[in-house]
Amino acid sequence: MFAKRLRRLLGEAIRLRQRQAAAAVCARRRQRLQARLQALIDTPWENGHARRWVKRLRRHAQELFTFLDHPEVPFDNNHAERTIRPAVIIRKNSYANGSEAGADLQAVLMSVYRTLKQRGHHPIQTMVAAIRTYLQTGSLPPLPAKITVDG
């Protein structure tokens, strides 16, 4: 029952976002959604899973509907999931790096790789150039700035 009510509540919030109704209508509906969330949180649930979710919802109740107040905030984390997917696949294929130090190194390298790629650079060439610079000067250069396209 808890999961069904929470799923319905979140589904209505997402549909409200997608409809892009007038601001006054959105504000009233958001208040009703917040009230329903509070009622869900205030219900004494017997199920242990529901109680754990309620504890988390209680901590984050004010942030749950942020995507309704700020259009630039997505209602899901699909972008983040897609962004970390290559690192997860590499970790799985390498049998979890074999050590804590290996896992830490891979996390740093993947972070630098993704940052360079998102800034429009060729990650491997940029990292090789940075290592050359380090070997010649003893210090690593800063990450290059984002490449902007004039148009």
Task: Briefly summarize what is shown.
With 151 residues, this protein is an all-alpha fold.
Walk me through what this model shows:
The structure is a single chain. With 151 residues, the protein is mainly α. Helices cover 70% and strands 0% of the residues. It has helices at 2-19, 23-42, 48-60, 66-69, 78-93, 100-118, 123-137. The radius of gyration is 23 Å and the shape is elongated. The chain starts with a helix and ends in a 14-residue tail after the last helix. The mean pLDDT is 86.
What is the number of beta strands?
0
Number of domains: 2
| Major beta-sheet overview | none
The structure class reads mainly alpha
Shape: elongated
Order of helices and strands: HHHHHHH
Gyration radius from CA atoms, angstroms: 23 Å
In terms of per-residue confidence, which ranges show pLDDT below 50 for 5 or more consecutive residues?
none
What share of the residues does DSSP label as strand, in percent? under 5%
Straight-line N-to-C gap: 54 Å
Mean pLDDT: 86
What share of residues is helical? 55-70%
Number of separate helices: 7
Topology:
Blueprint: H1 2-19, H2 23-42, H3 48-60, H4 66-69, H5 78-93, H6 100-118, H7 123-137
List keywords for this structure.
151 residues, mainly alpha, 2 domains
